[in-house]
Fold each of these.
Amino acid sequence: MQRLRLRYAKRGRLRFTSHRDIARAFERALRRAHVPMAYSQGFNPHPKISWIGAAPTGVASEAEYVEIQLVTPVEPAELVAVLDRAMPTGLDLLEAVVAAPGGGALADRVEAGRWRIELPGVSPGDLSAAVTALLAAPVVEVERLTKQGMRTIDARAAIVNATVATATVASDSPPPDVTCGILEVVVRQTTPAVRPDDVLSALRVVADLEPPVPAKATRMAQGRLDDGGGLADPLAQDRAVTQG
Amino acid sequence: MESVFPRLEPLLPRVSKPVQYVGGELNSTVKDWDATTVRWALMYPDAYEVGLPNQGVMILYEVLNEQPDVLAERTYAIWPDLEALMREHGVPQFTVDGHRPVGAFDLLGVSFATELGYTNLLSALDLAGIPLHAADRTTEHPIVVAGGHAAFNPEPIADFVDAAVLGDGEEAVLEITDLVRAWKAEGSPGGRDEILTRLAETGGVYVPRFYDVGYLDPASGGGIEYVRPNRERVPERIAKRTTMDLDAWPYPKQPLVPLAESVHERMSVEIFRGCTRGCRFCQAGMITRPVRERSIEGIGEMVRRGLDASGFEEVGLLSLSSADHSEIAEVTKGLADRYEGTNTGLSLPSTRVDAFNIDLANELSRGGRRSGLTFAPEGGSERIRRVINKMVSEEDLIRTVSAAYAAGWRQVKLYFMCGLPTETDEDVLQIAAMAKEVIRAGREASGRKDIRCTVSIGGFVPKPHTPFQWAAQCDPDTVDDRLRKLRAAVNSDRNLGRNIGMRYHDGKPSLIEGLLSRGDRRVGRVIERVWRAGGRFDGWSEHFSYERWVTAAAEALAPLGVDLAWFTTRERTEDEVLPWDHLDSGLDKEWLWDDWQDALDERELEDCRWTPCFDCGVCPAMGTDIEIGPTGRTLLPLTPVN
């Protein structure tokens, strides 16, 4: 039995997929690529796949993680090539490493995520002011619709740090390229999770910030927080062993 | 042609299940618009999750896109949340492949599996900027072509479509493409009228505007007096299309695999087309004759290619009655051998109790997955099963399900209909008796108490081109009353009843389906009125409004001297001109009438596959013949990849 840990990206139009969509697409790609998956026992056997907190529907990601179990070992680099070819466009396999023995669970190496949120039509100045107000507030309560109905959560508590950058976002077609504020925010994993939408709601609460068009969010990284507020690569330990 | 995606994208975060609008399915095709000469938009007029797995659309999509100069893209019904935003922001109906505006295509082909998609057709036309009425369209607009089973009576949508094709579409779409290509190359002479005439001249494309319909006075019954061509060059009757050699059309070769969840999470291979079991309620069985089997090797090859291309983990062997394939045992054993140990499931979604056995079931579950067992006795009593010509006996059913329970199955589903011609309360109450017997026998055979039987009941809707096309549809109150009594009968025995589940809907949607199924052109104004009043997604109980249909029918039909009951609960006479009489399914109308009389006399009819021809008329009329095995061949093991 071989355990492999994979990092993949969810890009472009595929950000509209839900976690269930991704899981199905992934399983089918594994079958098309003839990856020798291990299956669970029982009435309805399932391939052994463990998902690590998936990015929400509508959010792109450069740092999604999943662990799979194989009945016969494969070369990680080869798996990346074969599986990436079998995946739908926009679901891109980036890296595979063999899980190092005794290294503990992958989920334990993920405690926070860094989001990049593009806000077309919002000036960097307005965004900076709103972010300053947000970071200054001890508590920012936002409402979110959950399966249990409207829920109020504190979005501020989960935010580790936030910075603002400026970019010109190239547009595929009209409207022409626009300058927009970009928010980079590191958010701790909590229950319930604070998502990019909740961060935007928080900016609305503290500074009446209303993006004229929907923001585009991308998860850039996940990992354990280091002392400087950065994120440690969750695969680093396994990679070191894989590369011997 | 510009993509509307940049304008659509900002709307998507605001709607439910946005992934259904983004396309990008595995095996989908986006061609260069300018490099093609004939462009089809193909629509399944229901939600994406229902429409995407539709085999008809998938087949035509691939057949058309294999032509180098032809482009085919798909479009589906838009849910009301996005429809409202698209109207607000001026985004037109789009295809999910290239996100091109549907109004820019040469043709819009719409596949109607059910009549309840008619209001969704109107939404799509309107969102596409295509005039609702065919008469108001110009050469700027696509030619709107209806297909699918409902196209065997397209009269209710005659005002909204330019043409309809009856029967199999594989060859028909290519012929239509050829005519459109040639006409465009000539510079579109004679405009829309000319291309429609050229299509009609083939005898296989129905163009409603070229036929005038005359009606009798309400005093004389209010029915149809005549349907006749209003110009030269068009035939009196329009014939259905039949694709004879299924092995020559192994589509879909590259099944579409959606990102979004759909209603059928499996790959489908059609193992034969047509059915001659002769169930009198079944329109599909009547209009798809004769039986044409795909060979065992053709099936094996489609499964192999399709699994490689899709990664699906289940294969459905589709047909109207899959266990009737002349080599079904060899097919299932061959596939089970080939895919042993690969966790690939096999299923036969439609099987008759009398053609099924436990060996077959065991082959199906060898792949490691055991799907549920479903049978359709359709009628509760022996008498009503003679009326509908569904000749399965209760003994067969009990024997088969007992064996299944004994072999480890825990759950069996049984389908029935309510509201059948000549039906009484007693016929329906027999369903309860049968379900209880299933549980009693199943407990005995398996030695377990926890087995289940789910009884699913649909309202019967009389359909064109069937022996029941003359029948009075049962009114919803009677259907609902019978179902209440049935539930009481199931629950009367707590010991057995607690293992019996019942699923059914009230009878109202069936009555509207009945109006649309057997309606004539006058029903078009009811559809338009319902749509204007907000009617959408009528196949969905949360969107369907019976009151809206009843009100619209009363308002639109009253000036014409007919009403909803006239179209539905009224029995037709032998000499009545039926709205679809000029549309030729090959079935001889006299034979259908005789079969209707046999039904009333509770007389059964055999299957022509294993008894002599009983002269339904299809083969001589269409120049076709039964195409069945056995071929005597078997599936060889696949050579392992790598």
Amino acid sequence: MNFTINGQSVEVEADIRSSLLDLLRNSLGFTGTKKGCDQGACGACTVLVDGERINSCLALAVQYQGRSITTVEGLGSDGSLHPLQEAFVEHDGFQCGYCTPGQLCSAVGMAREIERNIPSVVTANLSADSVAIDERELRERMSGNLCRCGAYNGIIEAISETLVKTPATPQVRARA
Amino acid sequence: MNPFTYERASDAPAAIGLAKGSAAARYLGGGTNLVDLMRETVERPEMLVDVTGLPGGIEPRADGGLRIGAAATNTALAADAHVRTHYPLLARAILAGASAQIRNMATVGGNILQRTRCRYFYDTAAACNKRQPGAGCDARDGFNRYHAILGASPACVATHPSDMCVALAALDATVHLDGPAGPRSIALADLHRLPGDRPDVETELKPGELITAVELPPLSFARRSTYRKVRDRASYAFALVSVAAALDLADDGTVREVRLALGGVAHKPWRASAAEAALKGRPASPESFRAAAEAELAAATGLRDNAFKIELAKRTIVAVLSDLTGDDA
């Protein structure tokens, strides 16, 4: 099977049954992408395919041949974090970190969806030319990524500060 | 997961031809449900025919309706400008389902044919007439908070989990099929079956048939329409009860036309025909809405954990119709 992963062409032999997640982790060593539930409920396995976020656990690798895949390893580079990664550190957007690669990829994909004026279920005006982004929109749009540590407030602050400017930026909530 | 062969089709005849080669072939859309079921060995196809390369265009029709290629993603359909303006209940129903990641993967055809999320259907150690005809039903006396209150049978109390289909049922959508015996069409409302004594037979599709497109007739008053989903958490959960509704009011404040469908309550998207009939010509008032909801739910029956959904469905119908009569609707 052939893929472009983080800008590099790769060719790999794989079992026809391999999920994209297992292919990335077990066959190619991209262990940044995490396996949480392995059934599309937690979002830890989120990667970008041609810029769109998907759950790699529910994706058969064979179906994604020839596509361009971005994992958390492709967001920043050694010694140079992606601005969103910096903001996660700054705002305590994680504790154990297991959901973080999925949160990061998901947020990058979300920002592109907002740029393309894709609505969410809490978008009040479906006919508007652009989505008015507030904290409620961000929480709804990130609901496919669970965080067992409950770092949601920090995650939303980090996203608000870097990817998507909300009216409340940077003080999304009052700190205790 | 059992082994399988994988083929990719570029058009419907090719897909149907490939699938004909194996009695245990399945069409593969986004895979968000099928891959999960294969991992649990609930689904054991010997061949997958990938149909994501088939037409997925969303095209307005001369009569004001809309034709949706079955390979369109859920995201693409919800984001479509025509859908957002002319069929807002459909955009809102899709956006109420799953997560953004899953909506990016899932196709319209796959959404329609997704299977119940009944835990006993998924758990191969449990008894399930849908998974194994004649085995019994552990849901009936088990954890059945999410199960059916309308149209269930002794054999099966599972619900159809789609949000999108509830809106499609309200809109009188037509589903276009193609298969070994040639193309045909069927109303979305007639595509899914009630369980009866054969809950394993979920749709009217014949072996090898493929959904190629969904067509929406024009419905001018669908501009005044919405979808409300009541669930156990604010986002990313299946419906306890959902309501899709479109309302057309006469100048004297009576109901000229109404479309109403319920989700989370039955083995299929539930078109609320009794409620619609009870509303036509009546004043658009909470009293009329309540009476219509009572008429629709008159035949409902509850199980140990889900009897509350009967009252919940009634109240949600009243709330949605009340919202649609508001000045800002």
